[in-house]
Design a protein that fits this description.
The chain is mostly beta strands. Helix content is 6%, strand content 33%.
Length: 294
């Protein structure tokens, strides 16, 4: 919290953040300061323009087609806090996309643990926060529609993801190699439409996955091959209409158990399949890996 005095008087703050040793001459040190541009909202100060040798931590690029801003990380900047708030507005205009947020500084200083995307962000771009091996928590807004490919790839400390209701697309390898991830939770009345190829592959702690009825398309190996239980919120007839993108893309081929939501709100595990006499052909791999069948 910031006092009324600071709210009126404080516009910039120069702080000492450490000593920098040159890579070539490790005995030479320079004092590093950071000039922070502050914005006060509801008695709290938000930092939008910290600097490291004069380079801002976040940069904003105006998209003339969308008439909105894109926020990016400055690859020459270094970041010294454990939490980063990605604003959903800049200069009174919506920031609709976040891309390349993973800065040079995040990787080398290994400090960023918590990233909050503010309301207004609709797209998290390709590789936006991939390979940030200290990232433990992400907060996603209801405005979010698309998570692009490899957005959070190899976030090895990330354990839980709460996906907002308006999210429609999870891109290819978006959460691939998140080795501690054990919980993926979709909001009630989720509008998810597509989970692309390898989105959750190589996530060994993720043993249960609950799939909303709104989903229409799976990419190849979208949920990996390690699941113990797949729970589907729709009917078996809806499941049969899903686009699985090719042979062996159906999660039923890999899950130990498969369950359909009942009218009472619980789940019923699928254990047998009745094939009517009208069926003349059963296609290749149709029941391959259906270990849950009795």
């Amino acid at each position: 919290p910031i006092t009324e005095f600071y709210q009126k008087e404080l516009q910039q703050l120069e702080v000492f953040v450490g000593w920098y040793k040159t890579p070539t001459f490790s005995s030479v040190e320079y004092k590093v300061t950071s000039t922070l541009e502050l914005e006060v909202v509801d008695n709290h100060a938000y930092i939008y323009g910290g600097s490291y040798f004069g380079s801002p931590e976040l940069t904003f690029e105006y998209d003339e087609t969308e008439e909105k801003y894109i926020v990016k990380g400055n690859q020459e900047a270094a970041y010294f806090n454990t939490k980063l708030i990605i604003p959903g507005e800049f200069n009174g205009i919506q920031v609709y996309k976040a891309e390349s947020i993973r800065m040079h500084g995040y990787k080398n200083n290994a400090v960023i643990k918590d990233v909050e995307f503010s309301y207004g962000i609709e797209i998290i771009g390709k590789s936006a926060l991939s390979y940030v091996d200290t990232l433990q928590k992400i907060t996603l807004p209801d405005s979010l529609i698309t998570i692009e490919e490899e957005a959070f790839r190899k976030s090895v400390l990330l354990e839980i993801i709460n996906l907002p209701k308006n999210l429609e697309v999870i891109g290819e390898s978006a959460f691939c190699e998140c080795t501690k991830l054990y919980g993926v939770f979709f909001a009630e009345e989720s509008k998810i439409k597509e989970i692309q190829a390898n989105a959750f592959v190589l996530c060994p702690e993720l043993d249960t996955f609950e799939i909303p009825a709104s989903l229409t398309k799976f990419g190849s190996n979208a949920l990996g091959t390690h699941l113990d239980m797949v729970c589907y919120q729709g009917t078996i007839e809806q499941w049969a209409q899903l686009d699985f993108g090719g042979n062996l893309c159906n999660p039923m081929h890999y899950a130990t158990k498969f369950a359909i939501k009942t009218d009472g709100g619980g789940y019923q595990t699928l254990s047998r399949i009745v094939i009517p006499g009208t069926i003349k052909t059963i296609g290749r791999y149709t029941f391959c890996g259906f270990d849950f069948l009795e």
